[in-house]
Amino acid sequence: MDNKVQKLQEKLAAAKLGGGQTRIDAQHKKGKLTARERIHFLLDEGSFEEIGALVTHRSKDFGMAEQIVLGDGVVTGYGTIGGRLVYVFAQDFTVFGGSLSETHAEKICKIMDLAVQNGAPLIGLNDSGGARIQEGVNSLGGYADIFYRNVQSSGVIPQISAIMGPCAGGAVYSPAMTDFIIMVENSSYMFVTGPNVVKTVTNETVTSEELGGASTHASKSGVTHLVAANDVDCVDKIKRLLSYLPQNCEDKVPNLPYTLKDEYRPELDSIVPENANQPYDMKAVIGGIVDPDSFYEIHESYAENIVVGFARLAGRSIGIVANQPMSLAGVLDVNSSKKGARFVRFCDCFNIPLLVLEDVPGFLPGTDQEWNAIITNGSKLLYAFSEATVPRVTVITRKAYGGAYDVMNSKHIGADMNFAWPTAEIAVMGAKGASEIIFKKEIEAAENPAEKLAEKEREYAETFANPYRAAARGFIDEVILPNETRRKLIKAFAMLEHKAVKGPKRKHGNIPL
After folding, report:
1. Catalytic residues
2. Which helix (H) or strand (E) holds 309?
3. Distant-in-sequence, close-in-space partners of 71: CB < 8 Å, separation ≥ 6
4. Which of 212, 237, 313, 499 has its CA 20 to 30 A from that of 191?
């Protein structure tokens, strides 16, 4: 018996060593943690239970029969974060460069199945050179098996992907189909085709970092939702993100203890400027409404004219979608519509109530927007809000013009409660543009057209650029003082806590992709 125990211990020790100390040291020299170290920092102390530590590949070609490593380049299992069950896989770059083989994929698929069956989040720590080319189509089949499970898991359990090294070729599509991607600065990259192929096909010279680094995907493509400074920061961001999410689609996020006070916030009264064309920071509004230091912004550097993120309101997790007057006056465009729609759909999948803070002058005009399908992309945000059945509350702080008024969670598309500040302007368009159209002949005939335009602009603004016509029609439930916004929202979301909506019978809608 002692010999058998010793043999087991030797095998487990070999599995934990991965590709060996030399390759572990090489990983550390790059400023990267190993797969097991990443799991250690991610999960609660002592909670990790490994599955498949003794799995090996089955390949015999190209000398692979002599290169057997226990675990086959991926560490899989389950544990807890803050006492809550999660499933995790971490690719081990010290073993065959973390390349994906048939058995490597089978290990990942096994915990994906367990995650869905047991209703717990799945976290993937990606660090891989791609498909194991010695295995040919077997490796490709393994990727497809993972892709299929990503789709079957979508909207059932939260799926989070951390890119902590290379992720190229077909490997990128699994993270792309998960809910959130976190990349590490200067040590991770994602692209379908690498710099060498790009150079050959298009004659463009580009580095891996420029082509698919963290900053590129955070600001240009919007592929990544969060950027981390290093591996430990990446793990901390995963933990914080999970704190706002439920275990699965049938669960709700646990409320944190909170004792109600008066909840008035006088600082909100002075945020919106007197001049309607002067910008202000919508994040200051968010800060004045939500619990202190609870706002966690998603996609911070992408499509900055809209702000999305999670926060706590009296201890309750909510999702926030807000126009940002500091960027392009808060206008909706192709990228901001896609960003907002994706976030709204995620929150709706996982029972997270939505707060919309609105100051939108309309959709961005121009050939670039039209040729890049602002019609279809703008429809995505409209579709996402219309489809959402979670509690939905809107606060109009200033402008709500044109079709953008409809799109930004208006009463007409199913919002539950719609508030407006006294500074709100709800109209088809701004007073100047409307006056130029409505009073065109009068202005042209006037002795002083500029003076006449200013007069008509004031007249239009007095009549339409306020929240009271909409309130008279019931499109706005209440015009409120800014300082009482937090108090009103706490009460509204508490009232809506047990909201239930039964939609028409159908397989699924056809969102304008």
Report:
1. 169-170, 403-404
2. strand 306-313
3. 15, 18, 52, 53, 54, 55, 92, 95
4. 237
97: left (phi over 0), alpha (psi -120 to 50) or beta: left
Q: Please name the CATH architecture into which domain 2-242 falls.
A: Alpha-Beta Complex (3.90)
426 close to 405: Cβ distance less than 8 angstroms? yes
Q: What is the predicted pLDDT for the residue at 249?
A: 97
Alpha-helical regions (H) of 318-430: 334-349, 367-371, 374-387, 402-407
Q: Note whether 306 and 283 are within 8 A (CB).
A: no
Long-range Cβ contacts of 273-278 (<8 Å, 24+ apart): 276/398, 276/399, 276/425, 276/465
Query: Same CATH fold, 266-429+466-495 and 2-242?
Result: yes
Q: How would residue 60 be classed by pLDDT, with cut points 50, 70 and 90?
A: confident
Q: How many CB atoms lie within 10 A of CB 205?
A: 9
- Tokens coding 186: 């200067």
The rounded distance, in Å, linking the Cα atoms of 358 and 404 is 10
CA 107 – CA 178 distance, rounded (Å): 18
CA 376 distance to own-chain centroid? 20
pLDDT reported for residue 39: 98
Q: How much is the pTM?
A: 0.94
Per CATH, domain 266-429+466-495 is 3.90.226.10: yes
CA distance 238 to 37: 15
CA distance to 364, 377, 400, 497, 503, per residue, from 387 (Å)? 24, 15, 21, 18, 9
Q: Where are the domains of the chain?
A: 2-242, 266-429+466-495, 431-464
